[in-house]
Structure to design on (824 residues):
């Protein structure tokens, strides 16, 4: 008891079980007043679960929670909100067709004569946004504003409710490096005002540059809490993963050959019927990895889908192996040598209810040796499946379990096994390591490099700038459906790419770079 | 000519009334994220209950009973689709089949007739002073069954609830992004229950408007698809009270036109084509030919809290 007179939050022995897994196993956590405290762990380590318990989204099975030294039963978010806790979720909890103000006041609306008093509400929003320097447009609809502004709306939502303790769940995932800097400034001004911040992340660099202290969680268990200036990045990586991690991807110089894919002046619409690709042009050669960097929602999804025949192009040419493809049809493209690692493995990559051996032949299911006449040759299919499981190190009890029973990393390896085994000429990898553990990330990175060295052309589309920088031989930056510029990897610095990801012309960036 | 026009508009209003009421019900339910195709069945049961209430007590007690029974049946739909997270279409279909069965059964049991009930007292009409003396307008709005006025008032009330009050904002948030609503402490499950039960209130009222309003008896399967047309009106009206009302009036107009054509012996368009019009309009609305309709984002999705 004597220990905690400067603690904003104290969590003791938190255990949370889900069917088949223990997400949190007797985890302790302390947040001091006025600090920025990072909660570091791999995807699936249990960071978000722990914070959802604190916020009352989930109820812990065991353990105690103290807020400002008072024991609190956080049964639902209302309790947490009343105790001054606010959470900014990774996937924003905003209602797209509502205005900024409506989102901020939702659940705590100022009223007059039983009606929402929009005048007061808008004024309140303006007041707090001015107080903390969080610039938003109160009457704009959330669906029309930028991701950065949406995040500020989320933070304002918490502040409007009088939050003193803010939980930010992976807040940098959707931001450009410059937007991240701005966020850090906001976080610092918040702690200056006496707020305390918990900052969930799996990015080591950010821990070091943003947080005062860090708590590391691995497989649902607490590893340690340390001051960030007493540890190195490598030490943190080891704590997070539990073994030595090689942070750099090792690779030889690329040896590019002839052009395999050539895209010129490509236009395509998104699901909302707005133009998402506005004259995209680039080419990919054999033996190289071309990385497409950009902030989410700048046409990456549409580009992947057009190139794999899943979306109609409005205009422009696509040349594959020197031949123009006028009507991209998925099946034809795949037969001609394009493989695809989709950005959403659960929606597009796998059929979660299907067994592994069934998933492994999707797309080839109608051909020999997997099919003979009208029948599937299940014996042969299973045999092949066992070979692939072994070759690609997929951790599974057998080939007859459902895909959904595998971890994210192993699901991704399953897709990679299927797509690589087709021996493609071009590999389109969209977000190949999203939401998977470090071990699987290393494996996938190395296999992409392996495919490159095997003289395949690889188009890597990723929102993780680090991934782009460590794998690509050339980097194309996409902004509002257009390639801003393509840089050789030697010229591609994080700062330059960041500016270009925000739409700055490469000439401006280069000019600025020379001055600096 | 003028008399025909007045009759046409007056009939339009009357035929649109059950549709407006049921569409408002469907709107509240779907705005909260629960699809309620049980409107059809609830209307039918409401119509029977109102008739029976009028037979044994008085027409207004019948209306009250219809509304209460409507809310109870809607609560059953809420329980199945919100708490048990069953398929909302299946639950709604089950209620519709049940409604046809139970009303047919009770009709035979109580009134010994398989086709229709005896004639009961209806709620009559209301005369609106001053307005009834204005030409044409008086003919249309001056003297109507009470349900017409109730429906028009309900459109305004629903608009006010949905777009002006915190309660309405919360209903809409729950239907668009339940997790977001949950994260600010709004009780998603509770809001959905309230909204679905409100839809039962409106569908019950719509049913009563058939058996003790437009007619003075219950006829087997007398809702005859109006619950579904109401859903179409709701979609056509883009899930807004005023839009649903306009769509319902359009459908009511097609109905009235068809009736008028029959009485004055117009035969150049077969009446079947006029009867088809609402359905064709609905299909066009759904396919996006006439303006695209986007349903609430979480419409039809049960809310599961502990999802990791």
């Amino acid at each position: 008891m004597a220990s905690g007179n400067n603690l904003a939050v104290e969590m003791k022995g938190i255990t949370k079980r889900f069917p088949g897994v223990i997400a949190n196993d007797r985890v302790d956590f302390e947040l001091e007043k006025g600090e920025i405290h990072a909660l570091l762990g791999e995807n699936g380590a249990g960071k978000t679960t722990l914070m959802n318990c604190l916020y009352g989204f989930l109820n812990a099975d065991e353990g105690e929670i103290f807020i400002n030294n008072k024991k609190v039963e956080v049964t639902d978010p209302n309790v947490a909100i009343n105790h001054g806790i606010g959470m900014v979720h990774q996937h924003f909890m905003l209602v797209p067709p509502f205005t900024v103000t409506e989102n901020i006041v939702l659940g705590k609306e100022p009223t007059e004569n039983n009606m929402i008093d929009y005048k007061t509400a808008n004024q309140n929003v303006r007041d707090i946004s001015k107080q903390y320097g969080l610039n938003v447009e109160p009457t704009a609809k959330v669906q029309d504003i930028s991701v950065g502004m949406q995040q500020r709306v989320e933070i304002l939502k918490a502040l409007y409710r009088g939050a003193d303790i803010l939980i930010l769940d992976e807040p940098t995932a959707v931001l450009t490096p410059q937007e991240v800097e701005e966020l850090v400034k906001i976080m610092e001004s918040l702690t200056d005002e006496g707020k305390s911040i918990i900052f969930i992340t799996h990015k080591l660099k950010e821990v070091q540059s943003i947080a005062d202290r860090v708590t590391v969680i691995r497989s649902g268990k607490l590893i340690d809490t340390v001051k960030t200036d007493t540890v190195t990045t490598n030490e943190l990586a080891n704590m997070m993963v539990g073994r030595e991690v090689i942070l750099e991807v090792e690779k030889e110089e690329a040896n590019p050959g002839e052009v395999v894919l050539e895209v010129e002046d490509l236009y395509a619409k998104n699901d909302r019927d707005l133009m998402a690709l506005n004259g995209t042009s680039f080419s990919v050669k054999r033996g190289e990895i071309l990385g497409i960097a950009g902030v989410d929602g700048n046409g990456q999804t549409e580009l992947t889908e057009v190139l794999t025949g899943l979306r109609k192009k409005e205009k422009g040419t696509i040349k594959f192996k020197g031949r123009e493809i006028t009507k991209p049809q998925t099946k034809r493209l795949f037969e001609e040598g394009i493989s695809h690692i989709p950005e959403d493995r659960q929606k597009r990559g796998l059929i979660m209810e299907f067994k592994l051996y069934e998933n492994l032949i999707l797309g080839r299911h109608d051909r020999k040796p997997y099919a003979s006449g009208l029948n599937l040759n299940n014996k042969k299919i299973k045999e092949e499946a066992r070979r692939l499981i072994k070759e690609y190190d997929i951790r599974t009890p057998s080939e007859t379990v459902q895909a959904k029973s595998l971890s994210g990393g192993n699901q991704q390896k399953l897709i990679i096994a299927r797509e690589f085994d087709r021996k493609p000429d071009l590999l389109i990898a969209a977000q190949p390591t999203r939401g998977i553990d470090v071990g699987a990330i290393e494996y996938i990175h190395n296999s992409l490099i392996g495919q490159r060295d095997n003289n395949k052309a690889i188009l890597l589309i990723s929102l993780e700038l680090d991934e782009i920088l460590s794998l690509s031989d050339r980097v194309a930056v996409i902004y509002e459906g257009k390639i801003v510029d393509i840089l050789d990897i030697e010229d591609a610095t994080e700062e330059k790419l960041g500016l270009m990801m925000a739409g700055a012309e490469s000439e401006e960036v280069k000019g600025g770079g020379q001055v600096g | 000519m003028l008399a025909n026009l007045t009759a046409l508009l007056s009939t339009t209003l009357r035929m649109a009334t059950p549709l407006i009421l049921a569409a408002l019900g469907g709107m509240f339910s779907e705005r909260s994220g629960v699809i309620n195709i049980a409107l059809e069945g609830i209307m039918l049961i409401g119509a029977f209950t109102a008739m029976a209430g009028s037979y044994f007590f008085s027409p207004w007690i019948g209306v009250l009973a219809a509304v209460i029974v409507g809310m109870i049946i809607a609560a059953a739909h809420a329980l199945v689709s919100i708490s048990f997270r069953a398929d909302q279409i299946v639950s709604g279909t089950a209620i519709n089949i049940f409604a046809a069965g139970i009303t047919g059964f009770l009709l035979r049991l109580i009134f010994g007739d398989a086709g229709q009930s005896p004639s009961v007292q209806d709620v009559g009409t209301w005369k609106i002073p001053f307005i009834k003396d204005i030409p044409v307008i008086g003919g249309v709005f001056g003297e109507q069954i009470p349900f017409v006025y109730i429906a028009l008032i309900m459109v305004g009330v629903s608009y006010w609830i949905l777009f002006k009050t915190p309660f309405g904002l919360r209903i809409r948030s729950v239907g668009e992004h339940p997790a977001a609503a949950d994260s600010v402490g709004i009780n998603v499950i509770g809001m959905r229950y309230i909204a679905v039960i409100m839809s039962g209130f409106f569908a019950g009222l719509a049913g009563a408007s058939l058996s003790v309003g437009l007619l003075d008896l219950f006829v087997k399967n007398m809702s005859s698809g109006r619950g579904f047309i109401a859903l179409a009106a709701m979609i056509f009206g883009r899930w807004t009270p005023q839009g649903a009302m306009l769509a319902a009036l359009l459908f009511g107009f097609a109905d009235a036109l068809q009736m008028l054509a029959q009485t004055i012996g117009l035969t150049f368009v077969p009446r079947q084509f006029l009867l088809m019009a609402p359905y064709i309009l609905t299909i066009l609305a759904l396919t996006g030919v006439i303006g695209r309709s986007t349903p609430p984002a979480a419409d039809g999705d049960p809310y599961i809290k502990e999802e990791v």
About this structure: The longest strand of chain B covers residues 126-127.
